[in-house]
C-alpha cells in the first residue's frame, strides 16, 4: 500500500503517523519529493483500514498495490478450481451448460424442458422457484412448489438442479438443490453470502448489474472466508448507457477473471441482452473467451412464459446452439 | 400501452392476439400503417405481462405509456405525504436533518455525537449497527450492541433513531428503532421490502447504485403494496464512469421525484461523493433542489472512524453546514 | 411515430395539432383512453421534428417506431455491403485483419512491422500519423511525415493503408491513403462526416466512447447521405463504470449491428481493453460474434512505443493470434 | 509518480530501468517489499510516457501522484481567474448568466429574445448558428447568416455573444463573436483546441458526454498551452444509465472543479436534463454549488423551436428563474 502525503504536512505529525504504522508491524519506506512525500507500506496490509487512512488530515491519497482478496486470488492458488456436481464439471478444462426456463411453471413444463435440454447436451437444469421481480404486481414464482417440481425433473432426468435463493428464510427448502444461485441483486447481500459460506453446496454467484470485477471477487471471498470454497462466478451483463440491449455483456471480464482467480467462470447470455436472437453468437463468444460454462434460458413456449419470455429460446434452437458450442469446445480442447 | 407489430404479421394471428387482449378487459385501438401496425391498449394494463407480449412472434416492440407504479404515483395522490416521527417531519414543506456516525462505535462516541448534532439542529440520529462492507475482513459493526447504544443515545437526547437493516433475521432487534433504513445494496431485496411493508414504521429507502428513478419508485411500491405507506426516498449518488467522486450525486432526481411521487425525498451527500469537502455545497444544492431532508455523516474523530472516515465531518463543521441549510430553508419557505 | 397526449389536453388544441400533422401528409390514428390519448402517425416521419413535438404543451411523450436511419438500414438493403480495397474484403462472408503500430515512428519501424504482419496474414496496414492525445504534452505523431512513411511501407509490401484523420485541414495529405479512419472522439464531428461523404474512399468509422449503436448508425448515415456508401463500422469499447479494463468491449453490438445494418463491422480489441493479454481471447470472440474483420495494434517493441504500448503486442504474438483467427474463420465459413 | 514492479522482476533489468529513469533527471526512492518493489519518482514527471512505462515487462502498474495539468491547476495559481467580456464577469465572486435560443432562426426571433433576456438580467446572449445534430436530416442552423443575426442582436442590445464553433473552417466568421463555444462533442477535438489556443478570445469549453473531470481539465490545458488562458469550463450533464433525464447533471463537479482549478465554471441546466421543468431547480443548485455562471436556453415559442424545444423555456419563465438566481447570489455574496 502506498500513502501519498499532502504538501507541507507537519513533520511531527508525519513522524507520529509513521510510528503508528510501524506499531502495526508494517515496514515503512519513505520518499520525500519536492511536491509530496510518499510512504510505501510493506507487509500484510489487509487489516489496515484504508478509509481511516484516507481521512487522516496528513494524507492526500492512499493506493492499494495488491488485490484485497486472498482466497479467490490466483496468485496464491495457481491451479484452476474444478467444481463437480452430479457428473457436471466446471473449470480445469471442463465446460458445462446449465439450461432451463426462467420460472418453473408446471410439472409438465419443467420435466419436458429438462428432457429436451438433456438430450441436447445440457448437464444441469435451471429454473426459478423464487423470482425477484421489479414490480410487486408481477408473477413471483411458484416458490416451495417450484422447488418440488425441480426435484421431480431431477429425478426424471438425473440432471442436477440450479435455482436462486432470494432470502435466507427459504434456505431450509434447498436441501436437495445441487447448486444455489445468488442473483445479481443479492451479490452484495453480505448476510446471505456469509451464511452460504457455511453450507456445503456449490454457489453460483452472479455479478451485480453495476458491480466491478473486484467487487465480484470480494463477494466470492465472503463466501470462501466462511469455509465454502466452491464458488462459480457468472458474468451476466452490466448496466451501461446503451439501451439497445438490456445489459451490456462484459465479455472481457471472462479472460480477465481467469487471470485473477482460480474459480470457474460461466456466462449467462440470456440475461446479458434480453434478446433471444443474440443467444447463439454470445454463447459462442463465451467459449472462445475462456469461460467454463454457460447458463441459457430455454422455454417450450416463450410467448407464454410467465417471465422473461423475450430472452428465452425454444428447445430446438437451443439444440442448434449446443451444436456450435460443442464444435467450439472441441476446437478449444475443452471437455463438454 | 402500445404494441407495435412486426411488418407482414399474419393477419389471422393478429386477430387472435387482439381477441386475447380484449378478453382481458382491455379496449383496443388499431392503426395500420405502411410500415407497421400499432395497437393501443386502453384500460388497466398493470397486470399485463410486458415480457410475454414482447416474446410474442407478432410483436416488434411494446411501449408503456403510464407509469408502472400506482400507490407511489403523484397522479393518484396529489398532496405531499408528510412523514412524522418523534417530532421530525419530512415532506409538505417540512425539512429534517438526520446526522450521526457511519458506525456506532461506543456509548461515549454515539452519545456525544448525538448531543452535538442535536445542538446544531439535527432532528434525528443515524448510526450503523449492522454494516454492509465490501470486504469480509472489514469491521461490520457492533450489531445488537450497536442498536442498544443507539437507544441509549435516544434516551439521553430525545432524538429518534435511524439505522440500517441488513437481514430480516435481525428485525426483532429493531422494535424501538424509529426509522428502518434499507441500504442501496438492498433496494431490490424484494423479500425484505415486502416484509417491511407489513411493519408499522417509516422506511428510509436508499436508491441503488445503478437503479433508475423508476426502479426506486417500484421498490417503494413494493413496501406500500403490503400496507406501509410511510416511505422516505433517499438519493445517495449513482455509479457512473466518473471516478473523481465515489459516486455521482444525481441532483436532478430530486425535483423529478417530487413531480412523480408524493413521497418525501432526502439527500445523502456523504455517500454520494465520499469526500468531506463536498458535503457543504451538496447539502445546499439539496435544499434548493426541493429535497425534504438531508442525511449527513458526522464523527467526532474522522481519521479514527471504523468506517467511511473519508467522507465524515467533525461536529463543528456540521454546525456550519446547518447554518447554511437553515438560511436556505428560510429562503425557500421550508420549516426546518 | 406515436404521440401520447397529456391527460385533459384541450380538445380544440388537439384538433389543431392533428390538422397540422395531416397537413404534413401523415395519416393519423387516434385512440382515446381513460388515462391518455394516443396518436399514431402513419407515413414518412423522418422529416418530423421530434424535439418540437415533445415541446408541444399538449404532448406527454413521443416515441419512434421506426429507425431514424435509412441508407444504413438493412430493412431497405437486405444484402451485405462488401467493401473491397487493394484485395482486402470486408462483409458478405469476407474477413480481413488490419494490423500495425499505434503510431508511425520511423521508416524502419513501419516497414518491418508491415512485412511481419503481412507474413502473418494481415491484409491491411494501420499506423497513426496524426495522433489525438489527451495531454498536450504527449507525442502527437509524425504528421505528414508519418503518412509518407506509411506510403513507403505500402510500396514495399503492397498492403493498403488505414490511418486516422484528425482534422479536415489535413485531408489533402490523404490522397494515397486507402481507408480513412474517423476516430472515436470524432464520431460526432458532423462537419468531418459530411466532408468524408463527398470523398471516394472507404471510411472506417469508430464508435464513440459513449455513443449508442443508433448514434453510430446515424453517423454512418451522415457519410452515406452525402454519397459515400463505403462505411466500415468499428466497435472499440465503450466507457462504463468498470475500471479493470480501459473500456468495455460491447461484443453484443457486433451481432446486433449485423441485424440492423448491411455495412461491415470490425472489432478493435486493442483499444477496447488497453491490455495486451486480452487481445487473443477478444479477437476470437469477434470472429464468432459475426464480425467482418479485426484491427489490432502490433509494435516491434511495445515498452518503447511512443504511445499505447500497454495494449500493443509483438509480431510473434500477433502471428499466434492470426493462427487462431484463421482456424475460427474456417469453422465459421468466412473467407480470410 | 509511483511504479509498482512485478513480483520476481529480474534484478539486473530493474537496475537498468532505474538507471534510465535517473538519466531523465528524476530522483528515485525504492522500497523492496515481500510482495512487490515500489519505485517512487521525484521531480518533473510530466514528460514521462506513462504508456511506455506500463508496457515495460518489469512493471505491474504505474500510478500518478500529481495532476497531469499545470496551467489549469489551482496548486500553481491560487487566485480565481476572472474572465471579463463586454462588462460580464465570470469568476472571483462574479456570476453571469448567458441566455438565448438553441438555434438562431430569424432576426425577429433573436433580437426579441435578446431584449427580453437582457431585461431579466442576462449578461450575454447565446444562439446556435452552426448546429451539431445527430441526424443528417435535421436542421443544422442558419450558419453564416446566423452569426450575422447574432451580431445584429448584439448591436441592438449591447449583449456580448456566445456561439458554438463546429469546424475550424468557419473560424474566419467568428471575428466579432465575443466567446467561442466548444461543444461537448468537440471537447476532445484536439486540433480545434490547439487552434483556439492561438486566438484572442475567451473559450467556453463544454464537458464531453462521457469525459471525466480530469479530461475536461486536460482539454483546457490544450488551449492554455498555446497561450490562451481565458477558458470557461461548462458542466452540462454526463451520460449515465439513467434515462429519466437526457443526461445526468454532475453537480459535484462544480465544487470539485473550483478546488482543482482557478478557471471559472458555468452550468448548463438545459442540456443537462432536456426537460424545461427542471431548469429552475437546477439553476438554483448551480449557484449554491459555487458556479460562476449559468447558460440557459430561452425561446419565445418552444413548441416551434427548430431544435431542442423540449428543454427551452419562455422568456417569462426565465424571468422567474433570474429572480431566484439573483436572490441566491445575494445570499452567497456573489456579484451578478
Q: Quick summary of this structure?
A:
4 copies of one chain form a homotetramer. By secondary structure, the first copy, chain A, is α/β, with parallel strands linked by helices.
Mean pLDDT over the full residue set of chain A: 93
Protein chain pair with the most extensive contact, residues per chain: C-D, 53 and 52 residues
What is the rounded distance between the termini of chain A?
A: 42 Å
The total beta strand count of chain A reads: 14
Kindly estimate the percentage of residues of chain A that lie in beta strands according to DSSP. 15-25%
The largest pleated sheet of chain A is described as: 8 strands, parallel, barrel
Q: How much helicity do the residues of chain A have?
A: 25-40%
The quaternary organization reads as homotetramer
- Give the uncertain stretches of chain A in residue-range form: none
Tally of helical runs of chain A: 10
Would you list the SSEs of chain A in sequence order as H and E?
A: EHEEHEEEEHEHEEHEHEHEHHEH
Q: What is the global morphology of chain A? A: elongated
Tell me the strand order in the biggest sheet of chain A.
Answer: 7-8-9-10-11-12-13-14
Amino acid at each position: 500500500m502506498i500513502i501519498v502525503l499532502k504538501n507541507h504536512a507537519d513533520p511531527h505529525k508525519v513522524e507520529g503517523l509513521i510510528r503508528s504504522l510501524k506499531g502495526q508491524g508494517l515496514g515503512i519506506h519513505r520518499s520525500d519529493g519536492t511536491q509530496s512525500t510518499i510512504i510505501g507500506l510493506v507487509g500484510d496490509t489487509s487489516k489496515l483500514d484504508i478509509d481511516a487512512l484516507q481521512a487522516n488530515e496528513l494524507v492526500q491519497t492512499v493506493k492499494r498495490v495488491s488485490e484485497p482478496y486472498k482466497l479467490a486470488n490466483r496468485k496464491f492458488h495457481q491451479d484452476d478450481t474444478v467444481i463437480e456436481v452430479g457428473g457436471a464439471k466446471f473449470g480445469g478444462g471442463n465446460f458445462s451448460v446449465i439450461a432451463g426456463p426462467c420460472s418453473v411453471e408446471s410439472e409438465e413444463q419443467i420435466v419436458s424442458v429438462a428432457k429436451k435440454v438433456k438430450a441436447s447436451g445440457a448437464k444441469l437444469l435451471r429454473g426459478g422457484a423464487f423470482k425477484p421481480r421489479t414490480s410487486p404486481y408481477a408473477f413471483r414464482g411458484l416458490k416451495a412448489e417450484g422447488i418440488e417440481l425441480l426435484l421431480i425433473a431431477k429425478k426424471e432426468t438425473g440432471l442436477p438442479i440450479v435455482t436462486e435463493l432470494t432470502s435466507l428464510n427459504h434456505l431450509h427448502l434447498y436441501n436437495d438443490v445441487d447448486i444455489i444461485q445468488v442473483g445479481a441483486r443479492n451479490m452484495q447481500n453480505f448476510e446471505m453470502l456469509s451464511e452460504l459460506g457455511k453450507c456445503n453446496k456449490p454457489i453460483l454467484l452472479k455479478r451485480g448489474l453495476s458491480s466491478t470485477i473486484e467487487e465480484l471477487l470480494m463477494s466470492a471471498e465472503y463466501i470462501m472466508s466462511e469455509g465454502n470454497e466452491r464458488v462459480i462466478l457468472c458474468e451476466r451483463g452490466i448496466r451501461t448507457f446503451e439501451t439497445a440491449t438490456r445489459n451490456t455483456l462484459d465479455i472481457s471480464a471472462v479472460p480477465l477473471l481467469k487471470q485473477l482467480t482460480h474459480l470457474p467462470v460461466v456466462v449467462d447470455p440470456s440475461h446479458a441482452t434480453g434478446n433471444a436472437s443474440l443467444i447463439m453468437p454470445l454463447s459462442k463468444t463465451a467459449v472462445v473467451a475462456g469461460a467454463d460454462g454457460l447458463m441459457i434460458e430455454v422455454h417450450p413456449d416463450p410467448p407464454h412464459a410467465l417471465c422473461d419470455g423475450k430472452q428465452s429460446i425454444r428447445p430446438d434452437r437451443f439444440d442448434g446452439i449446443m451444436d456450435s458450442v460443442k464444435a467450439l469446445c472441441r476446437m478449444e480442447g475443452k471437455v463438454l
